[in-house]
Amino acid sequence: MQEELAVAEGGAPLSQVERVVDTFVAPSKTFMDVRRSASWWLPFILLCLCSYGLAFGIAQKVGWSQLVENTLSENPKSAERMANSSPEQAAATRKFMAYSFKVPFYVNPITNVIFIAIFALALWATINFGFGGKATFGQVFCVTTYAFLISCIKTLLAVVVLYTGKASESFTMDSMVGTSPGYYIDTPGVLKTLLTSFDVFTIWMMIVLGIGLAIVARTKRNSGLIAVFGWWILIVLLKVGYAAATS
Questions:
Q1: How many Å apart are CA 214 and CA 132, to the nearest integer?
Q2: Which tens digit of pLDDT belongs to each residue from 195-220?
Q3: Rounded Cα–Cα distance for residues 161 and 175 (Å)
Q4: Global pTM?
């Protein structure tokens, strides 16, 4: 890693496009350049465009109402409460759920900034105070934005799947494409939720994020990976706990 950083540090500054490409093929180069400039406008635009593309595909090929029904089918207790509520209450709940899916997509520049900022803040505090790092919040925010580009591959695959025959009755936000073991489990519950978390692109993204965090914080690579995967494990446990409580 030290040899890679020495080469990157002595090289010419990267363009935004070069940074984006290197995020997938040579992430150390991208994140060394982030130490020079924490500019994040291009990856942020790409994230927003991918989100809008997925939103359009869902609206055209699934429909927000059908997405609500698919989500309820993955949550037996919620579906049971809906069945036992009055028609007016059930309709209001379904309408609220549909808006809860649509609105974040349609205002995704705002939601993306908020989500990235919260996650970056947690990582910034962890790497600096937990591992003695020296990263600025702006650098960690930039690294997080670039690392999240990995998720664009899964999003684009989901759009392709939607337009090539994905059954509208089975599409959910947690099971868009078959890149996790949980996708192939039909019965909702704790096991499906746990295995869905082990998504190929999520793991790839966490590794890239850990590398970038270590570089901008000037710590060992293991420190960055531990910080990132520590938070990921916590999020997975919270999701599994919620699945256990609602299954």
A1: 11
A2: 999 999 999 999 999 999 999 999 99
A3: 12
A4: 0.90
